[in-house]
Amino acid sequence: MGPLQLEGFASVVLDAADLRATREFYSLLFGSDRGQWREHGRRVTFVGGDQSVEFVRHPRPRTLAHAGQHVGYRIPRAEIGRVADSLAASGFEVNRWHEDHPSERDTTPYAKDPSGNIVELVPSDHAGTLIDHYYVPVEDIEHAELFYLNALRGQLDTYFGYSTADVSQAHRWSEGKDSAAPWTRNAYVSFRTHEPNPTPAAQVFTRFGEGYVGVTLTGQRLPEPPEEFLKYTPRLVFRSSHAPHEVASYLASVRISPVSLRYDGGRIRFRREGRDIFLRDRSGNFFQIACAG
Description:
The chain is an alpha+beta fold. It contains 5 helices and 18 strands.
């Protein structure tokens, strides 16, 4: 097997405190003509085309909303205003922000579902696909870059937060002149001047098929599950045409580290269950690879 190939997103798996309220919320989001609901025990799943959004009942949902973790869902462009109004009329707070991927420079609606998961409504002329992007916070941007680009073999879309122009945008945000999403900017207090020092959050955007994963260097604390947990939520599910034994063999062989190591370090931690591979990055973001065969 050559380099790993992940053709795109198959699903996202999220926690939900109340499955009925969750279904009502996402029915407003997706409507009735983009797919169908399936219920099975402690889970409900919306299936649209070759993608799905699965919700697992959990009394204390792990959302990471305080650090900006969210899913961008594609909504038909002509419907996005109506969907946002329906969410607001149902009592959900709707904000309009923009992010820093080149496709997201215009403001779009954001809301939280009943469990606190952030959703972004992405206007699309090709809304046959449910999931536009998946955005996660990380505590080590160098390791994240190696994990998503070198190990998972994503294609680099762009960086943000490294240029003077990016810093200027952060200053505009702090002056109330820019409606960037709050997790994309920082306002740390300078130890020298004791004044707020707005800075852009370092971000990397990596493409997998028609969707992309965005990662941001967060200033928030990320409480992680125990290190031995490799199958957890929230979780993004990739699709791969490789057989599971090929993916497992590849992940066992690949090494990543931001520094030169003399010992056999930089391993990717993963576990195989049938046709699926479960893994996590160093910041506790969980992933699954649904393999062929």
